[in-house]
Amino acid sequence: MHIILAKPRGFCAGVERAIHCVERALELFGKPVYVLNHIVHNTHVVETLKKQGAIFVRNIEEVPTNSILLFSAHGVGPEQWEKARKRNLKIIDATCPLVERVHRLAKKYAEQGYTILLIGDAGHDETIGTMGWAKGNVFLVQNVHDAETIKITETNRIAYITQTTLSVEDCKKIVDILYQRFPNLQSPSRGNICYATTNRQKAVLSLAEKAEIVIVVGDSESANSRRLVDIAKSVGKSAYLVLDATEIQTEYLKGVKTVLITSGASVPEEHVQGVIQFLSSIETCTIEEICVATENVHFQIPKEIKDNH
Known about the structure:
Elements: E1 2-7, H1 13-29, E2 33-36, H2 43-52, E3 54-57, E4 68-71, H3 78-86, E5 90-93, H4 97-111, E6 115-119, H5 125-133, E7 138-141, H6 144-149, E8 158-162, H7 168-181, H8 195-207, E9 213-217, H9 223-234, E10 238-242, E11 258-263, H10 269-282, E12 286-291
Parallel strand pairs: 1-11, 1-12, 2-3, 2-4, 4-5, 6-7, 6-8, 9-10, 9-11
Helix pairs in contact: 4-5, 8-9
């Protein structure tokens, strides 16, 4: 079997920073450190951090007063900040800087009296946080159907923003429809879909044709991992999302000679290597890593936990 390994894959700068934030907070302040929601959408990462002393909560009310609380890479709305301050929590904000940029846009548009169309997934942590900054004057657009049917009364001051982990292609289709319907639509000066999402999708699009099947290592909670599967399927390939090697079913591989492997932006590389080892245990494999884009983005950690604290 021939394995094509997509590059870039795995951790993006925002995920690396978020994980480092939890580890550094534990180092500085000791156990426990509380984290609102999953720090990133990957079960293995969350379990590892739990073992180190992180406690994950869904509600700020679960956090004892005067504790350390981290906000996850997906960010939160202003009401969560308010709740945390009321409980006198020491906040470490691990929100990805690219998500934070979307929050600032939502806040700016809301303050300027715009109706905001947020292109994103209902119920996703990032979408919930962004809607909070839009101060109620926001409509969620999830797909082409929403874009075609959404009813807006005030169309003179209207703007759109997007979740950072969308499919670039799907987002473009939605935006094109919105422009046709609302000619005054304002757009972000730079796209909101992040560099890592874009690069990983580009890699799958350009490499899928070389393979018979595509295996995406990632969590089913991870929007960017699910998108990679969708993109592979959109170009006619069988594609499977697996958390790790234990989820690979041998029927995926029947008669298959070439496999493309990639991983979502919150996946530790060891789980990609685990998949390769599993495939190699079934039959002899050759491995070819193909780089489609180079990434050298790094984000500073918050001042509260800098090494010189």
